[in-house]
Amino acid sequence: MSDVMAGVAISATLIGCAIGSGIGGLIFKNIAENYDRLGELCSGIAVLVVRLVVCLLFFVWDPPCGKLLWYHYVELAAIGGTLVTVGGVDRALLKKAIEDKCQGTAAAAIRTISGIASSLILFQVSAYLSEKVFGYVPSRKSFETMDAAVKERNAEALRKSMMYIILAGTILNVFCYIALLCNIPKKVGGN
Length: 191
Fold this sequence. Notes:
By secondary structure, the protein is mostly helical. It has helices at 3-34, 39-60, 70-97, 103-133, 148-182. This is Major facilitator superfamily member protein.
C-alpha cells in the first residue's frame, strides 16, 4: 500500500470517528432519555456488536493489495465510529454511577490506569503477537532497502496483531457490559 493510500485509510477512520461521535452522541442521548436504566448499556452492546462484526470482516476479507476498495472504506469508518462512540457510553455510565463531587478524580484515575495499561501491557502483547505468533522479522535496514518479502510479512504480522488486540478488547468490553446489565438492581417503588 502506498503512502497516499495509507493516508486515505487513516482519513476514512478519522471521518468515521467524527461521524460516530456526533451522531452516536445524539442517538445515545435520545435512547437514554427514553429508556431510563438500560438504554446506555444496550446501546453500548449494539455498538460493540457492530465493532465485532467489522473486526471479523477484517479477518475474513483479503487485505487491500495496493488499492482500497469501497468496503475497506466502510470497514475503516465503522471501526473509527465505534471506537469513539463507546467512550460516550462509558462516560454516561460513569456519570450515573459516581457522585458529582468525585467525577474529576474518577475521570483522572480512569485515564491514568488506561494510559499505564496501554503503555505497559498493550505494547508487550503487541510485540509478542507480532514477533512470536505472526512471524514479524526485526530488521535494522531502512524501509527502502528492506526486502519486499520481509516488508509484506511484517505488514501482515502487524495487521494481525492489531486486529487480535482490537478483537480481544471488544470481546472484553462486551462481557463487561453484559455483566453490568445482569447486575443492575430492579426498580423498587420508583427508586
